[in-house]
Design a protein that fits this description.
This protein is an alpha+beta fold. It is about 45% helix and about 10% strand.
Length: about 550
């Protein structure tokens, strides 16, 4: 018979067993029958890891998270919603019906105002101050304050910076090809690295007013820190903070490390101090943020404020706030919004550019037609830099970009947190009563690849977005930037940047497959986002 040597050891073992039982109850037993008790169709997955992350092929590295999500969506795509378990074991709902997604996101928005990503304020002070993580009235005020940053006139001002960076990029690549390729006039590039460096320079210039020169200075601090933060946001530390916030706090697992926090604070402080000392005004995002901070950012609705930058443009639902000095605007707010814009451009835009380059290399007929449109516009401009109006008029360019965002969306899934009781009803009459803090998910990756909405979804076909076919696209089935008031505030900026870069890239280079181009592309096993298995490699050949 087992004997304890002392009262202390007995208490220690008792505490250990009670802790284990509590963990088992919290993550496994408590919610185990949540959906079955309510007669709701659901996918259980694995305790603690949940439905999506509990996919055995994902755990073994044979499947990516987007593909795991797609499996659940395909199995239940005929239902309006299906029960799933989140990372950590919390029950939530996957909303498969586009009409219900629109109703939740727009018509019934007051019941789903917030995201559920509630990070600890002490552990992640900058993340909680980003627009994405803010809640309720605080979010409304910040959204209204920042919305004038993305009107047509402001985008026009930032386009010139994008074009300048693109021209420097083209010169660098041209010189690289000329010096290394001999008479072939073509060279293989790691497009992921190349596009991250280009977008790093553009976002650094348009957001911070800092000349990065990442193409030549390959080890510059901004690029290194940006890369580290981008991986952290999509990595294990972020997942633990989201799924197991108490564990993250216990082990001090910050998403943005102290060194990264310090670096970006110092960079922005330095840039702001220099501008104020030298009385510098620049048409970039930092200048606009400073104007917003001081209550000087004009919210007057200019004639271009509602102009689209493409079919994927999302209308702004939150009215711009009256231009007044923000009493509670802290340094954290300024740094947080700057970091948010930086990471969105650094990761999302660069990845979209990699996918579009791959698709154009594989589909040369599409590249040829797009190049023809670009040449025609360039001739109309007499070789001068592309303008905001010219990019708006380029229908085929918009069709190509839209199809990339359809097939390879920037976000594979989006969430909403329930504010108050809400009833959902499925086709068969099944009802689900949502309670405050229940989570609903929109499976964007699955919807974008559903053959009900897009026949032969694996085929890259820009004709889906022609003037003739646009009316056939069902609302809620094309949402690369989200939908409703919580949609990505920078969608116009992202679309404009992608188009400006593509315009200048194809004007100068022919994009081809190289020996290392993977056809078809396969998503990386264990990957949390839309990342590919072997990377992006293309041959760039000089035109003219």
């Amino acid at each position: 018979m087992f004997e304890f040597n002392s009262v202390t050891s007995f208490l220690a073992y008792t505490l250990l067993i009670s802790t284990l039982l509590r963990i088992i109850y919290t993550f496994i037993i408590r919610n185990w029958n949540y959906f079955s008790d309510r007669n709701i169709v659901f996918e259980r997955g694995i305790p603690v890891l949940g439905t999506i992350f509990g996919n055995l092929d994902l755990i073994l590295g044979k499947k990516s998270m987007p593909d795991s999500l797609y499996d659940v969506y395909k199995k239940h795509s005929d239902r309006k919603f299906v029960g799933i378990y989140d990372l950590g074991g919390k029950p939530s709902f996957l909303i498969n019906d586009p009409e219900l997604i629109n109703r939740i996101s727009i018509k019934d928005f007051d019941s789903f105002v917030n995201h559920f990503l509630m990070f600890d304020k002490e552990l992640n002070p900058l993340i909680v101050r980003t627009l994405f993580a803010m809640s309720n009235q605080e979010w409304r005020e910040m959204r209204g304050t920042l919305s004038p940053l993305f009107t047509g006139s402001k985008m026009r001002q930032m386009l010139s910076i994008m074009v300048d960076c693109s021209n420097e990029f083209n010169t660098f690549v041209r010189n690289d090809i000329t010096s290394k390729s001999g008479t072939d006039n073509s060279l293989e590039f790691d497009m992921s690295e190349l596009m991250m460096r280009l977008t790093n320079d553009i976002i650094g210039s348009t957001a911070f007013g800092i000349q990065m020169n990442s193409l030549k200075e390959v080890n510059n601090d901004f690029f290194k820190m940006g890369k580290e933060m981008a991986y952290a946001i999509q990595g294990v530390r972020a997942a633990i903070n989201i799924g197991f916030p108490k564990i993250a706090k216990l082990f001090n697992l910050k998403v943005i490390t102290d060194s990264q926090d310090k670096f970006f604070r110092n960079a922005i402080r330095s840039a702001v101090a220099e501008r104020r000392r030298m009385k510098i005004e620049r048409n970039d995002m930092l200048n606009l943020l400073l104007l917003a901070q001081e209550g000087k950012l004009s919210n007057e609705k200019d004639k271009e404020s509602d102009q689209d930058t493409g079919f994927a443009t999302v209308s702004e639902f939150i009215a711009a706030r009256k231009a007044e000095k923000l009493k509670n605007w802290t340094e954290d707010d300024l740094v947080a919004q700057s970091i948010l814009f930086f990471l969105a451009g650094f990761t999302g835009i660069s990845m979209s550019l990699c996918f579009v380059c791959h698709e154009l290399a594989v589909n040369l007929d599409i590249q040829k037609r797009l190049h023809k449109e670009i040449v025609e516009v360039n001739e109309e401009l007499h070789g001068k830099s592309v303008t905001f109006e010219a990019l708006q008029k380029m229908k085929y360019l918009d069709m190509v970009v839209s199809e990339v965002l359809r097939k390879w969306p920037l976000a594979v899934i989006m969430d909403r947190n329930t504010n108050k009781q809400y009833v959902m009803e499925d086709h068969d009459g099944t009802k689900a009563l949502l309670q405050p803090n229940d989570i609903v998910w929109f499976p964007i990756y699955g919807i974008h690849r559903d053959p009900k909405y897009y026949p032969n979804p694996e085929v890259f076909d820009p004709e889906r977005f022609s003037d003739e076919n646009k009316p056939n696209i069902r609302p809620g089935t094309f949402i690369p930037f989200g939908v409703g008031p919580r949609a990505c505030i920078g969608n116009r900026f992202a679309l404009l940047q992608i188009k400006a870069i593509l315009y200048n890239l194809l004007l100068n280079f022919h994009i081809e497959c190289s020996a290392r181009t993977q056809i078809p592309l396969k998503l990386k096993g264990n990957g949390m986002a839309v990342t590919v298995e072997v990377g992006f490699f293309n041959q760039l050949r000089l035109r003219n």
